[in-house]
Design a protein that fits this description.
alpha+beta; Multidrug efflux transporter AcrB transmembrane fold; Alpha-Beta Plaits; 2 domains; 4-stranded antiparallel beta sheet; two-stranded parallel ribbon; 6 strands; about 5% strand; elongated
Length: about 375
Amino acid sequence: MSVFSRLYVGNGAFDIVGKRKRWYVISALVLLTCVLSIGFKQFNLGIDFKGGTKVQMASVSTSGAKIEEHAVADVFKNALGQEPAAVQTVGIGDSASIQIRSTTLDAAQVLKLKTELASKLNPKGGQGAISDSAVSASWGGEITSKALWALGLFFVAIVIFLALYFELHMAIAALVAVLHDVIITAGVYSLVGFEVTPATVIGLLTILGFSLYDTVVVFDKVRENTRGLLGLTRRTYAEAANLALNQTLMRSINTSLIALLPVMGLLIVGVVILGVGTLQDLALVQLTGMFVGALSSLFIATPILVDLKNRDPKYKAQAKRVEARRAKSTAAASTEVESTDDEALDEELRREKALAAAASVPSRTAKSTDNRRGRPSGKKQR
């Protein structure tokens, strides 16, 4: 049976739970890399979080020509002697504009920058159409604090909901998987150096919901397969959970692929083709988070659930009963095989004895022929 056939059949052919130590090691290495990057390299925070100045102007000149982002960055550097934090195109078509983000600028620096942009690039609307705004560092810290509080409340809500809907062990396993997704996604941003903006936070909350959704689907199948398991000796909890994973594996793959395709389209079309830089903050966090979330629901959440369940004395006792029944069945099958072999050997010996006895009886055909030779034929001899 091919791999695709086993995926669609879902008969437990893939031993995901049995190889959980392998997934733990891989996950631990990735998590360690991300944590070290977050601790030492940290994040490239946008001005919404650390404060700064934002200047916005039209993305086309008065002649209708498009103004390139690198040209704006060059004017900024020549005017102020420093690099801008980010230059991005916002919007599409005639309503598109270019945003310049930098560290906090004073009034003289802002005026000089506007003058240089108007004279060098001649944007539509002139210098009067170039706007600026400032974000204080205290306001950015407040935004960061509120984002962390929202994340914490989300985790608490996860535990309460899943503990009531499923059970506490499933709630803990799901929470660990979600934390796993958050740390890896944040670590990728730290490693690559993407700017963290409010759009990044929105995308992060989106992928948390996606990761939780896939985990809930798998756990629902696990609950179905393990209902009444303590009174049975056919499968252990680990085997029933692994069967549930196999039964939902193809669905998880299809769901993840379908969900990732629009995000990839948003990233490729919005950033590469249209050049809308603000879309990358949303698309990249979603692309990373959805991919990691799909993997964690299969390779992290359910294996952790199995380990938590195996600590329960009731499930330990049930696993021992399953092993005892299988050992007894194996012994009985072995005895039956030996008995069958003995019967076959006896039958073969009886057959050999019968053939040997038949071979020891003298043939009567030749003797009968000799007797007939001595008898008169009834014909007169001349």
